[in-house]
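Progress against Task 2.4 (sequence-to-structure conversion) is shown through the following example record, which the project officer requested during the mid-term review.
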Amino acid sequence: MATVEGAAVKDDTTRVCSVRKIRQYKSKRILDLIAASVGLVLAAPLAAIVALLIRISSPGPVLFKQIRIGKGGEKFTFYKFRSMRVDCDDASHRKYMKLFIEGNEEELKGFGNKKKIYKMTRDDRVTAVGKFLRRTSLDELPQLLNVLKGDMSMVGPRPHIPYEVDLYQDWHRRRLQGLPGITGWWQIHGRSRVTFDESVRMDIWYLEHQSIILDIRIMLRTITKAIVGRGAC
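Structure tokens generated for the chain above:
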């Protein structure tokens, strides 16, 4: 009898958790749709200026499209404003990400890294306008379209390129359990100043503690950081 009652309690607990997850998903999706729609409307004039600058500064399309890895390892087409020259060789970036994911800090210095800055600061592929777009994060605006499509969320782990995910350790893949985001816990607390392992731990922490209130807090902090220009180095 006790075993039957215990099983019943376990089933009830599982159902409650499932209902909570469904409600959480629906609430997050509603927030995403509202935030992305408002963001696209407000950013439209600025996006038009950015598009014009990209057209004038270098030949090629305004939008950069790339295959990224999303929730559950699913591939999707990722959008950004183009910040690099067309048909660039990605060999240097592949090498950099391999060293970064493996935690080889000594060899990372050869890519122009300053102390405790984990980012390619010496990248000849980036245009002059592209450097400004990356520094201000304006190149991220088209990802609002990814949010509307449901490929991404406003808040979540950043989506990585397939050749980067291929280098993941098993525990790194836990960050693929949620929808990737435009911003996230890692972006407002570390960004280019933490190691790859630290960034993954931050992503995992977010996935284990995500809520609508937390998402709103992260989005507000992201806007503040974008305005003052912190963390974009």
